[in-house]
Model the fold of this input.
Amino acid sequence: MPELDCSIVTPSKKIFEGKVEYISAPGKVGEFGVLPGHESFVTVLDVGIVEIQPTGKEKFKVVIVGGYFEVSEDKIFVIADDVISKDEIDIDKTKEEIQKYKSELSSLNVGDANYELIQRKLKKYEKMLELAS
Amino acid sequence: MAVSMRDIKRKITSIQKTQQITKAMKMVAAAKLRKTQEAALIFKPYITKLEQMIASLVSSTSHQDNKMLLFRDVKSVDIIVITSDRGLCGAFNHNVLKETEHFIKNKLQGKDVNLVLIGRFAYNYFKFRGIKPKETYTDVLKDKAEYSTASDIMEKVIADFLDEKSDEVYIIYNRFVNVLVQKPTIKKVLPIYIGDTVPSEKGMVEKFDFEPDKETVLEELLPKYVKMELYGSMLESLAGEYAARMTAMDAATNNAAEMIKTLTLEFNKARQASITKELIEITTSIEAMKQ
Done:
């Protein structure tokens, strides 16, 4: 069975390193999946859910916040701004954060300095809730 | 007898207690230093990789309109100063703050300087001098440096730079040279200059497909790169802080040992003096009784 060498990191920690059969990630221009033998390419990631199928292990998902994604010669390399795994998520707290950012966002206009930042944060928590439930 | 034996004993006990504390602090700092160094080790290869990719992208795209790479006339400068929140680390903070003041006085004359301060020491220092910082972040570098913190801080700085509220951005921090040496360092982070220091791998760009295109990827990578530079500086500063505290506490422990030695000597002298005095008293009274 062909497989990919995959390493996912944030600047402060290693998230995953190992062989995978399949990985899907949220690209800026749309969701994509990578199987062994994929053409070499580089893209940037949005906020969203990454699905990983490690060889011989159970499939798992994590929330990823932005990042750089590179595949070449069956090696995948991802640097993300932040990665949150399922067991790190506190549903009640996440709901609170969503409320907080929603109200913050409603007081801002599109194009405000903080608008995009808050929007990204909101999306992160929404994806966390999606993953946890 | 100038000082009583009890007083000396009390002093010795008190110094011994201080010594225990400084010894413990040294050990704690050493452990934290190791952790921070490990974090820095994890981080190094990625920034190198990103640097290479950016360097090869810069050399292969037309990026005339990318503001983060363009130099412009400098009217206003942002300086990010990284210090610690807690003291007891020797001249660690002082060095960085002196360097900052020196830099502003000598290199940035006539320019509008805005400070972004990290750490309570920087905040207090400039507050005392009546300088109002643009932003202050305290307690963000407590036990470890978080990338998300660096990212949040830098996000605002980048936004100001892109709005042309600032034309240049510097980071001033303590570079971790080794456990004994932390060097105050000035690093220019914006506009980004990727010079000949980064060897761009030949054919690196041709190997890849870029999704959606090279320019967009570059545009996304540049802010990340700047944020990582800040994160890297924060890590180094933190490592430096622990190293400085370790050295300072080691010196304090040694000084305490020295003092205990001197005091013990004094105590023994005092004891000997009191014994001699008692003996003299006894012998004189015996002599007196003989007569």
